Structure formats: C-alpha cells, structure tokens
Fold LacI family transcriptional regulator.
Amino acid sequence: MTPPPAKRRPTIDDVAAAAGVSRGTVSRVLNGGHWVSPDSLASVNSAIKKTGYRVNPHARSLATSRANSVAFLLTESHDRLFEDPNFAVLMRGASKALSVHDISLVLIMAGNEDEQRRATEFITAGHVDGVLLVSSHSDRRGLISEIVAAGVPAIACGVPLGFERKMGYVAADDYAGARELVHHLAGLGRKRIATIAGPKDTSGGMRRFEGYADELGDDFDETLVARGDYSRASGAQSMTELLERHPDLDAVFAANDVMAAGAIDVLLASGRRVPEDVAVGGFDDAPVATQTTPPLTTMHQPFERISEEMVRLLLRVIGGERPAAIVLPTDLVVRESA
C-alpha cells in the first residue's frame, strides 16, 4: 500500500493568498512589520496562524544578515542570578515577548572581568542582534562603552549610568517609590526610620536612597543608613549594624525585598517584634515578600511589563529607530510588616 504523500509545508504565497495581500506585504510583516498598515498586519498575522506557516530561521538569517537572537546580559555574579528571583521574572518575560517574533534569548553572564571580556567579544562579533542589559553597574562602564561603540542595539533595565543619552532603557520609578514607602512608614507614627540602601554604583541603589533621604527631609540622619549588595546576608549584616548604632530605631526601609528579609531575620532573632517594635518595608514585591514572617509591605515593580517594554524598544532600535526611555510607576503593597 502506497503511503499518503507528506503534507506540504505552507509558504509565504499561501499566507499572502489567505490574507488577501501581496507576497511583499507578508515579507515585510515577517521582517518587523515596517511600512505595513494595521489592517494588513492583522490580516497577515491571522493568516500565519490559519495556515500554520513557520519562518525558516536559517533562511531568514541569510537573507537579513541577522542572528535571530538577543542577549540577556547580566552583570552580576552567578550567586545573585539564583538568589534574586527578579532576574528569572525578567528573563521569562523577555523570552516570551521575543518568541512571538521567533527570536531566541541567550543568557550571558558578565559578573567579573573575564566574563565581561568574553561577553564583549561574543556580542560585538555579531552573534546576537541586540542586548537586553540587566543590572548595570557604573564600575563596569567599559563593557557598556564597547557595546555602544560597536553600534550594537541595546536597551537597559534601569538607567544605564553614564550612558543615558546613548542607550535606551526601561526603569521603574525608584525615586517616587522609595518616597511613597517611607511616607507610609512615617504615617504609621514611626520616628526613627533607618534604611538599608542598595549599591551606590546602580541606578536603583542611588535613586531609592535619594527618595528615602528627600522624604525624611530635615529628619534625615546619616547614622541611620547602612548599605548592602541586595543579598539576604547583606541585609542581615546591615540590620545588625543599625541596631548596634540605634537600638531605639522603630522602622527600616530596605532597598529590595531580599535585604528586607535578612533584616527581619535579625530583628526577630534579637527579640524584637515586627511590626510592633520595628516596621519593615521593602522594594520589588518579589516572591520572598510573601514568604517572610510576617509578610512584607513593599513597592511593587511591574517586572513583566518592564521586560515586554524592553523587548519592544530593542526591536525598534534593531529596526533602525532611535533609542527611547520609559519610566514605569510602582505601587505600594501593604502587608503585615508595616
């Protein structure tokens, strides 16, 4: 018995016929949608789903000289990648947004000099079409400078310190968010509000500290400030230092939820009650915020929206548009810690 013939793979012509548009219109949609009307774009996307058409990545790469991949460049240690859940949320969101365009996401670690050198060589050699830069530090400007100098399209998560006019970015409103959280603590009647600030070489660390200080105004006291590196251990160490200096403090704002969790560990171990003795607030609304005892009051960052906007802006830069910047609002989430 003769086997049935193999099912023919749908072509661009099939998509064009189903959409009622020209072959050229379909091709433009597949290569970014430039110069295509909204109605035609919707018709082509519908026809692609109807026909089951799939792009041949190798053929498209040869035709467009593109790698069809984007780098998720993380300038942190490997430990931070696994300790901070925000990176996983951003990576998952970016991968999902890129998958719509049949573009792969490649994770590149650049937490030390050797990794930064390899990352620079890989990225500037054309192995990726663009870069999503996550957690940039001002002391790693060499890496960013080489990416910018090579003309590689890039969008940063957070303000890329020193490169604000050369690289687009998507950021949460760290300053306003910090002010709102500190205002909430003060509204509870707390008078000795300390902070565990983030690293000085990150935009988030800088802006959240500025928001804290400005909200306190004349009540700001430098001795109520300790700095961590966003890890739980640094939050615990900073809380220990603050209690030694000011055992009478009655509130603490930590620049991220992971450090806030470390602070709560120390407060409870010292016999203090949260929030009765010391109210605690964080920033991010990461999964750990619901796992602490008590659950953590914090500022919610829209990480999924941030990753979607980063991909959208990056694809526009890859398509030839000028870099743009977006700042998204944060929202106060009140739980039992404050």
Observations:
- Residues 303-318 form the longest helix (16 residues).
